[in-house]
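User: Okay, second chain of the day. Same drill as before: sequence in, structure tokens out.
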Amino acid sequence: MSLKLSEYDYDLPAELIAQRPLPRREEARLMVLRRDAQTIEHRQFVELKTLLSPGDLLVLNDTRVVPARKSSDDGAIEFLFIERLGRARWKCLIKPGRKFRAGATTKIDNVIARVEEILPDGERIVTLDEDVDPYAGGSMPLPPYIGRESDAQDEARYQTIFADAPGAIAAPTAGLHFTREILDEIPHAFVTLHVGTGTFRPVRLENISEHRMHAERFSISTAAAEKIDYAKRIVAVGTTTVRVLESARRQGGKLVAQTRSTDIFIYPPFEFRMADLLLTNFHLPRSTLLMLVSAFAGREFLLRAYEEAIHQRYRFYSYGDCMLIL
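Assistant: Same drill. Structure tokens below.
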């Protein structure tokens, strides 16, 4: 059992962090990990269907990233609108926070924005003088390791082709590789989890079991629940999908339609009840996402795979390559 934060670390050359998407979504490389044989193969994402079996069901997160990043009218303050709390009232991340303390004001689209409260984790409760749509004219909230401002290309490519339910501030990146043609060839179902800041907050405690995740909303429709129950094997596309599946409630042995929140934190050891296979991108060191995938693949095997990926010059993180864990 690996509960030490330092055991989920690795060194990544900065040039392997993908800063732009590939010209075509499906051109990503695909590392295949076979848990039974402890082997690693190098494939292409377009080969995904050939690696699956009859009765397998892809389960994907259809959340849609909202253009939640916006600057004050004077350009001095950057807002990330995380969650609507009520009329003209929002939970936000603000940069630089030291300039925007409780009671501070600025203007966004000529509407006064005021800090009502600073939460313990540094997020702000912000009230606007008018109930306006802060996403209008906003930009895509690219992760900080992409060291540039978002542009028109990101509006299309930092979004899955099946994105449907608006509400995420980060893309479920394992789904970014799919084209409509590839998806249509494989049986699939959709669930929804709106990716928030909690998934990406750093773990700061050396004993990882003491880390607490923020709750995130998810939903499973009746049609999706029936498909998932009927499937021979579940292929979870991305860590957010895993969190939905492993949080889902059953009644009488059957998965049921549901909408609720989860703060599940998956790390070794963990007994997976729903996900049989996992398609995922490469994740940051010391992150809850790396810990989840370590629980699924085995920490030592996974870190060996990461070493191989670095040696083979795979592209890392949101716009990077991916792996399939069998």
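The radius of gyration is 20 Å.

User: Thanks, on to the next one.
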